[in-house]
Every structure is written in structure tokens, then in C-alpha cells.
Amino acid sequence: MKLEEEIVRRQRERARILALLLGAFVVLIFFITIAKTGMNW
Amino acid sequence: MPAIELTNPAALPADWRDLLALTKPRVMSLVVFSGLCGLLVAPASLPFVLGFTAILCIALGAGACGALNQWYEADIDAKMRRTAKRPLPAGRMDRQSALHFGVGLAFFSVILMGLATNWFAAALLAVSILFYVIVYTVWLKPRTAQNIVIGGAAGAFPPVIGWVAATGHLSALPLLLFAIIFLWTPPHFWALSLFVRSDYAAAGIPMLPVVAGAQNTRRQIFFYSLPMAAAAIAPWLLGLTGSIYGISAAVLSFVFVVLAGRVFASRATEPAQMAPEKKLFAYSVFYLFALFAVLVADRWLGA
Predict the structure, then answer these.
(1) Do B50 and A17 touch (CB under 8 A)?
(2) Has residue B2 got a pLDDT over 50?
(3) Residue A2 forms beta bridges with which residues?
(4) How many angstroms separate the CA atoms of B263 and B160, rounded?
(5) Which pTM value belongs to this model?
(6) Which among A5, B123, B177, B183 has most CB atoms closer than 10 A?
């Protein structure tokens, strides 16, 4: 495999995973805030 | 742009699978389980999301330890058959990426723990990471055959952190859970190091079988299993748990001591003949899982 193709493939894969993890982190922070402020719903 | 052939994988951005492998996911499972048990037996209940976050932080802290350990020991790992295929010794990623990943995970886990639960739990998590990386990996492991005895404390922190995340304070039971894992670690690792002794010798790691010989190691395995069994039964004897835990701990510990006794009696010199050592190693993993599982069962069923 050519070097440039491999670099782009890895960057895309990592960017996709990072986006998913960031999304999950935002959701987690939202629910932590709800729990810490005592809003039970 | 002309095509360039792929010759040095370490010069590429690290593959996410290799980043995951840096965290030693198999080791993490026991850490997460013991942390979860510490949280579940604590006499306080956290909202689900905060409990989940506490366990996530313990897992990420353990992952940071794994990454920093592999960053520091890349040269040693390359000399051992068991570890030569890890991302750094295999040349699939560069060391600096592993260092950044480990330090980033460590800071993230400690700060998130502090924000989600309490700063006492976060401080304990930070101490456990620093203890594992600095005291065990950097200082003790390459210098003394007692590395695993003192270094075992790092692996004993998770149930204490889980407990403190739920309650905000320490008491006798989490300290006993700490003692159980602390005393369990030497027989567990020495059983392994007996049948991978040549690996440690090749890498220049002064594990007990390399420095003191197999028979001395077998004796120490047996003698460590006795206080470990006492620590395992102590929560019941002190009235901190019920009989579900007490009877189970007594039976599980009895089997552990019997298997350690068989290791003590073994005179095998070749790894292929070391069936008692392999059996003890496998049982020691089951033992810790089972002991903590019955502890939780006792707390929830016996209450």
C-alpha cells in the first residue's frame, strides 16, 4: 500500500472514532450535570 | 506526488487498535471488576451515571498505567516473547505517541473522577497511577526481586477508589479489600514468572525465580498464600460481611492454599512440566473474580 493512502486511511479512521468519543463525552457530561444538580427525571 | 512505499509503520499516525492495545484491556477487566465491587459494596448509593463515570475513570486510569508502562518498557518488551508483539516493540507506533496517549488518559481520568464524584477518590486514582508508573515500573521492577510485592499495591487501589467514590471516606472493609489484592499479587505473579522465567531472564528483569531460584519462589508463593487467605476471611470474622461471603471466602481460599501447596511440592524445571504452577495462576485469576463477586452477592442478598 502507498504511504499517502495509508496515512489518509488511518487519519480518517481515527477522526471517526474521536468524533464518536467526543459525542459520547458530551452526553456523559450532560447526564453528570443532571445527576450532580439533583434533577431526577 | 510520487508514490512512496510503506517501509516504517512507526512513522505513520498510530492505528486506533494499537492505541487500544496500549491500555492492556485484559488487565483492565480485573481492575474494573474490583473497582466496581468496591463501589457496589459501599454503604452509599451513587446515581447510576456517577457510578458509571467512576468505573470509567478507574478503567481509563488503568489504561494510562498500561500505556505508560509500555512506553517505558518498550526495549524490555522487545526481548520477551510474551510481549514482543506489542505495538511499540513491534514497531507499529512511535514511543512519543504512547507517552502522550498515556499522560493524556491519566489527566483526563483523574479530572473527570474529581468532577463526577469527589476529589478524595480522584487523589487516590492519581496516587495509584503514579505509584504504578514511578514506584513500580521505573523504580522497583528493574531493581529488586521484591518488585511485585510492593508494586502489588498499585493493583490493590481500585476497590478502595470505588468505595471512596461512593462514600467520600475510607473505612475498614475497603482497607481489607486492599490487603487481599496486595497479598494475592505475589503468588499470582510468581506462579506466572515461574513458567515464563526464561523470558524475564532474557530481558534482565530481576523477578524472584530469576534471582532466588524456582524453589525459593515456590516456598514464598505458599507462605504468601497463608496471610492472603487470612485477609480474605477477615471481613467475615470482623463482622463486616455475612456468611455468604465468609463461607465462600473460606472455601475459595482453602483451594488456593492447596494449589499453592502443590506448587511448593513441585520440583519441575521445564515450563512444559509446570502444571501445578499453571493451574495456580489460572485459579488465582478465578479466585479474585469469585471472591469479589461473592462479596457483592453477600452485600445485596444478605442485606
Answers:
(1) no
(2) no
(3) B5
(4) 31
(5) 0.89
(6) B177
